[in-house]
Amino acid sequence: MLDITAACVQSWIEAGRTPAQVLRGVASALWGRAAADAGAGMAAIGLAMHFTVALTATLVFHALSRRIAFLRTAPLWLVGPLYGAIVFCAMNYGTLPACGAGDNHGMLELGLDTFGDVTRDPDQRPRSQAQVLRDVLDEAVLADSVGVDSFGVGEHHRADFAISAPEVVLAAIATRTKRMILGSAVTVLSTDDPVRVFQRFSTLNALSNGRAEVILGRGSFTESYPLFGYDMAQYEQLFEEKLELFAALLANGPVTWSGQT
């Protein structure tokens, strides 16, 4: 959703659109994304949920931008995560546990995630993926310095997202941050080797002094399946078998495993 969010923020800043116009754009983009990934039925449910969240977040952001000049002039790679944080809080409002003074149990932890969405420069030209990666690194350093608790990067293999090797990006972030949890969001285990994923994140965990976190998934975007020679007909089986192997590796002992994929 962050790519859609960033696009809407960009149109807000650069075109001076009204909240109603931004929300119509959000609805159109979300419908197209959900329908492509899950079909029209599930798209309607997802659209209703995300539209409610986007409505709340957009109104909050609108109120803030009218009072804080910085939000009208700051670069998109800074404003986008702020808007994303508002979306997160809107999603979780009412479900967060109340905490008494001095009680750290159940406290809200705020995290950011990104796919490394390819943004545009002031002349509306797409930035290079190399520049986007450097922007993500700067964004993570800033997030760590202001107290964000975790930072996640996704994995995609397509032109509109720059991050295809999340562990490498997270390793770069680890060298310039001190406290944030660094995670994938997500690692597409179905089209990867569980042993190599385990090795890469174990290395990241050592380099970051125990701050690595891997989130495993099937992939809501499916470009990695044909790219790496996997059959979409085995979508569920690939994930289940590879997850079983990955779980066995967590015991840190010898593993004997066999499967059909």
- Helix-strand string: HHHHEHEHEEHEEHH
Strand order of the largest sheet: 1-2-3-5
Instruction: Quote the beta fraction.
Output: 5-15%
Estimate percent helicity.
40-55%
Structural class: alpha/beta
Low-confidence parts lasting 5 or more residues at pLDDT below 50?
A: 1-14, 33-39, 93-105
Report the biggest beta sheet as strand number plus sense, adding barrel if it closes. 4 strands, parallel
Number of helices: 9
Radius of gyration: 20 Å
Oligomerization state? single chain
General shape: globular
Q: Tell how many strands the DSSP assignment holds.
A: 6
Average predicted confidence as pLDDT: 77
- From the N-terminal CA to the C-terminal CA, the straight-line distance is 31 Å
Q: Layout of SSEs?
A:
Blueprint: H1 2-15, H2 19-67, H3 70-73, H4 76-92, E1 111-114, H5 129-145, E2 150-153, H6 166-174, E3 181-184, E4 187-188, H7 194-207, E5 212-213, E6 216-217, H8 224-227, H9 235-249
Parallel strand pairs: 1-2, 2-3, 3-5, 4-6
Helix pairs in contact: 1-2, 1-4, 2-4, 6-7, 7-9
